Amino acid sequence: MAMRQTPLTCSGHTRPVVDLAFSGITPFGYFLISACKDGKPMLRQGDTGDWIGTFLGHKGAVWGATLNTDATKAATAAADFTAKVWDAVSGDEVLSLAHKHIVKSVNFTQDSNCLLTAGNDKLLRIYDLSQPEAPSQEIAGHSAAIKKALWCNNDKQILSAADDKTIRLWDRSSMQEVKMLTFETSVSSMEYMADGELLVITYGKTIAFYNALSLELIKTVEAPAPINSASLHPEKDFFVAGGEDFKLYKFDYSTKEELESYKGHFGPVHCVRFSPDGELYASGSEDGTLRLWQTAVGKTYGLWKCVLPEDLATENSEQLYSSTPEIKA
Where would you find the membrane-spanning parts of this chain (predicted)? Predict the structure, then answer.
């Protein structure tokens, strides 16, 4: 009997969830932040989805959210023309960085000292968080709104994806463009993996893998539906993707074979990410929920309890296997 995938459903948001990010593994476990059009980014325990707190202060939709590695700082990008830095322990707002247009992306350096922002004003901005009054460094070059901007190569370089149908690699010290990739359609998502210097991008129905330093194509995989986001497992055995048909797909990285697909959301999937330990992946949707999915279905982990097929015949089966299709976190 095949084990049934039972996602943990994290409710609380009132509008579409458009971005999510995990912290690294800390002494207190790992954490998950979600960006939502309701303007109220939320922090959760990563392995269970349990709500920890909501960051209050934005006056518009929040398009991007991130945590630093040790989950002590959070940053958010919003339609109120600001990027904000938060104390992720207390929930207090630390900094509000004014922009001239909607901010879509935020990303910390590894040491958490600098914040990279990008958005509809087509500029990349680097803020020194130890000197909040100092003007940001600006990098221009894109001809349309920037969707995502990420540090790479030990924070020596920057990757950016924009609505001008390009991905560009920039050198931080010279502030110059190193290389550019052009696509037939706008890139819908971009994930960077420092371990192996891999870049995972999605556009149309395509999930593509590139070397992040040379921007050379490694492989592409075609999905059954338009894909909004994809994430590669930390061990690089497989990857997951979600998009317009409400489904989550899991593929073998080596063979490109589709291994599983699950329908749990009631709207398009906007974002998907693996946890830092690879035990689960989180998805955010137009339906206003986050869902956590097990990488190895049936394993005891977080709120999931292992149920062996032979246990289903016991008298306790009704207690072990609830008829409800999902667990509320």
Answer: none
| 91-104 as b/e: b if 16+ CB within 10 A | eebeeebebeebbb
All structural domains of the chain, each given as residue ranges with its CATH number in brackets, are 12-302 (2.130.10.10)
Cβ-contact 101, 93 below 8 angstroms: no
Residue 271 to residue 208: CA distance in whole angstroms: 16
- Give the pLDDT of residue 311: 54
Contact of 276 with 24, CB cutoff 8 Å: yes
What b/e readout covers 239-267, taking b as 16+ CB neighbours within 10 angstroms? bbbbbbbbbbbbbebeeeeeeebbebbee
**96: DSSP letter:** E
Q: What's the whole-number average pLDDT of the chain? A: 92
Residue 320: which H helix or E strand, with range? helix 317-320
Query: CA end-to-end span of the chain, whole Å?
Result: 26
pTM value > 0.90: yes
Comparing CA positions, the residue from 186, 185, 212, 213 lying closest to residue 198 is 212
